[in-house]
Amino acid sequence: MSEQRNIFVGVGAVVFRGDDILVIRRGKPPFEGQWSIPGGGLEHGEALEVAVIREVREETGLEVGILGLLNVYEALPAVTGFPTHTIMIDYVAEWVSGEPVAADDAVDAEFVSMDEAISRLSWDVTRRAVREAAEKRRTFLPMS
């Protein structure tokens, strides 16, 4: 019998409100209890940016605007210990409206400072993504 090999494509967003960053605490395995950025699975036939907006809304109740693509990250089974090869397509986003309310698979959702976000995030790749998003955000925003 051959080993099943799964590939999961997910989307996520580093969401800014001013200088603060949205973080969520996962409520379901495999990352239950861990802090992250909002995101989840891409649905068949769904455009990437539509998926990001949907995931943020489902997990936090917030409306966001996409500034641009942040980066593509992957988690390999040999590194994570999980059987799924995960591809995460992350975006930089700005808060548009609403207050964070945890829902779907999030048990907490709040805006925190960059330093606080970095200290809470569970995965080094996510910490790197948040730092990269802060830099990239400057290129997306118009000069005032």
Give a short account of the largest sheet: 7 strands, mixed
Number of domains: 1
Number of strands: 7
User: What fraction, in percent, of the residue positions are helical?
Assistant: 25-40%
Computed Rg: 15 Å
CATH fold node name:
Nucleoside Triphosphate Pyrophosphohydrolase
Determine and state the CATH class: Alpha Beta
Please work out how many helical segments DSSP would assign.
4
How would you portray this structure in words?
This protein has 144 residues and is α+β, with helices and mostly antiparallel strands. The chain has a single domain, classed as Alpha-Beta Complex (Nucleoside Triphosphate Pyrophosphohydrolase), CATH 3.90.79. It is 28% helix and 40% strand. The longest helix has 17 residues, at 124-140. The mean pLDDT is 92.
Main traits of this protein?
144 residues, alpha+beta, Nucleoside Triphosphate Pyrophosphohydrolase, 7-stranded mixed beta sheet, 4 helices, 7 strands, 28% helix, globular
In summary, what is this structure?
By secondary structure, the chain is an alpha+beta fold. Helix content is 28%, strand content 40%. The protein has a single domain, classed as Alpha-Beta Complex (Nucleoside Triphosphate Pyrophosphohydrolase), CATH 3.90.79.10.
Topology (elements, then pairings):
Layout: E1 6-17, E2 20-26, E3 35-36, E4 39-41, H1 48-60, E5 63-75, H2 77-80, E6 84-97, E7 106-112, H3 114-120, H4 124-140
Parallel strand pairs: 1-6
Antiparallel strand pairs: 1-2, 1-4, 2-3, 2-7, 5-6
